[in-house]
Amino acid sequence: MSSILTNSSAMNALSTLRSVNNNLSETQNRISTGMKVNSAKDNASYFSISTTMKSEGGMNKAVNEGLTLTKNSISTARLGAETMVDLSQQFVDRLAFAQTEGVDQADVQKELTSLAAQMATAINQSSFNGENLISAAGAGAKDVVSGVSRSGAALSTTKISFTSTDLEAVQTSFAAVAIDNTTTAADLELALTNAEGFLSAVTDAATDLGIAEKQVETQQTFLSELGDRLDVGVGSMVDADMEQEAARLQSLQVQQQLSTQSLSIANQAPQNILSLFR
After folding, report:
1. Is the pTM of this model over 0.85?
2. Digits of tens for pLDDT over the chain (278 positions)?
3. Residue 178 DSSP one-character state
4. How far apart are CA 78 and CA 14, in angstroms?
5. Are residues 215 and 251 in the same domain?
6. Residues 224 and 258 in one domain
7. Are 92 and 227 contacting, i.e. CB atoms less than 8 angstroms apart?
8. The Flagellin C-terminal domain covers which part of the protein (predicted)?
9. What CATH number does residue 62 fall under?
10. Would you call 217 exposed, middle or buried from its count of C-beta atoms within 10 A (0-12, 13-18, 19+)?
11. 3-state secondary structure of 235
12. Inter-helix orientation angle 167-175/185-238, to 10°
């Protein structure tokens, strides 16, 4: 039955055209943004997961940036400690030389005083951004946040722990060594033994700082690679497949043209009824 009041063919054609236009708009949006999940309405599950992962990635990147400051502080302190190791070794060598019969102990003492002064200079200059890890004020046990981990809804931080040594106290011990031409052989030997112990303490301090610096560098490398993995994981969920979307766009454009023609034909159907009354 044909009706001039209700054109079911036109209604069906219009419904199809609206559906095609909606799909076309969605595809064009994906192509323009490069994303298939822009909001929770696109895919609530993927949106929630990707948002959480982006948050974790952002926190780890922030921690990584903070570790750069820590690494620079440790690296600067390590340089100072290694410089002090060299000076300490020279100090021990001069004391060993002082054990020789006939050596002018007063001249050796001048060298020792100069070396102790250089140690103090190295310590004072081993500061980065106002932090000196081998000074009396900056030395001690340190805990550095190295990352953020998630277990369910709970967040926790991981840490790198290390200990820096107060080399100012060691330098004071070196500076306290005093010899002259009246110093006995036993006292010279004792001074050498003590200096060797001071050298061992400085070497241990430099070693600890080197280990800590390596830990921080390794963690930074891990955080960088972890950030890349998280970005890839998020992208696999929310990024649009551009090849697929391009093919879909062409298909929808053809469907849009056909739906428009179908609607036009359906709208002409009532006109055909007029021929029955001629």
Report:
1. no
2. 566 667 778 888 888 889 888 888 888 888 888 888 888 888 888 888 888 888 888 899 999 999 999 999 999 999 999 999 999 999 999 999 998 888 899 999 999 999 999 999 999 999 999 999 999 999 999 999 999 888 777 888 889 999 999 999 999 999 999 999 998 999 999 999 999 999 999 999 999 999 999 999 999 999 999 989 988 888 888 888 888 888 988 998 998 898 888 888 877 777 777 776 76
3. -
4. 76
5. no
6. no
7. no
8. 194-277
9. 1.20.1330.10
10. middle
11. helix
12. 160
Cα–Cα distance between 136 and 138 in angstroms, integer?
A: 6
Q: Which domain holds residue 86?
A: 44-238
The residue to which tokens 């200990």 are assigned: 163
Cβ atoms 86, 203 nearer than 8 A: no
Q: 154-164 and 140-151 as β-strands: parallel, antiparallel, unpaired?
A: antiparallel
Cα 198 to chain centroid, rounded: 37
Q: Is the dihedral of CA 152, 153, 154, 157 positive or negative?
A: positive
**Residues comprising the chain, all counted:** 278
C-alpha–C-alpha distance, residues 268 and 274, integer Å: 11
What stretch of H or E contains 21?
A: helix 8-33
Say how far apart CA 170 and CA 110 lie, in whole Å: 19
Tell me whether residue 2 is in a domain.
no
57 and 112 belong to one structural domain: yes
Tokens for 238? 């929310």
